[in-house]
Model the fold of this input.
Amino acid sequence: MSSFLSRRRVLTTGAGAALGIGALGANAVPAAASPAASRGASGTEESRTLDELYQAALAEGGKLVIYAGGDTPTQQDATKAAFLKRFPGIDLTLVVDYSKYHDVRVDNQFATGTLVPDVVQLQTLQDFVRWKEQGRLLRYKPAGFSKVYDGFKDPQGAWVAIGAIAFSFMYSAAAVGSDAPRTPLDLTDPKWKGKIASSYPHDDDAVLYLYSLYAQRYGWDWVAALAAQDVRFARGSNSPGDAVRGGQKAIGIGGSGSLAAPASSPTRFVVADGHPFMAWGQRAAILKQAKNPTAAKLYLNWQLSTTQQQASFNGWSVRTDITPAAALKPIWEYPDAHIDGFPRFMADRAQVERWKQTFALYFGEVKGDPTPGWLGLHPGA
Done:
């Protein structure tokens, strides 16, 4: 029996009893390819330069449509601006929505013969495995593919991670003063009651995984104590950071951040040794039915280029040959980041649903409109 299930404070009946660590392995998919699998992979890396791909993309028609997972309509504006600055003349449409809507949207477009995007970059890691099995993804290895960490790529090139993202908690240095929370255990201190914002764990699977790690490590009494903290829950993993930066709350849980930020930064992202946080590689793939495959290849090559990877907002790269900023370790060297655990977690959809419904019992139902807006069936068409 797992240590999670054997803890005295864990739920012993109903959904909670089924949430043990052992269930993670039921439908597990390996996060990293074995050396043998890597040696057996077919295909070579892209040999054309970015400028050569750019000219080929313009000759193809110069259009590109990307469905990107995210929280607000403007969240990928900086990416779009940087791409268009480097490659003027490309007609780029970049549509941001929750990954859990983009994936079923793409499935429906497959079913109705109305596919819109050329590239998908999503948090729903399990979809890339499924789409590969269905023959939906173009097997393609951008330049630098061999330098990508094994756990962040499909050995045959069906998908590759273009960025590493980490979720934990953060705080406002001015709001907490000298008594800052150091670990997730500190978040249940009564002095923080009414001063915490969080994204709903039962609305975003990455936040859900973070909360599941907390529950497994600290027990359900900790979850109950957090529920008593009058936490302001909201949709969108941007919401806790926005609340902290905007001075509305002192602490935010379930959002991204950077350990590479300077000591003078007003917001501090917390990763404590021996305590869980979570990270993953945001996967991207070219759809086999893409209308603009050359522009799609240009985009993946640009994202994996050393220039882009060195400019990562959090200092981490998906490439093994790029030294992280600010003396950080590569993200895969943080055992508490559970980068292998998240793909396994995402693959077991029945377990994900049990976690969601259990957290709804503690924190209430998800409320509010989707933060990217309601985009319908064919955004970007």
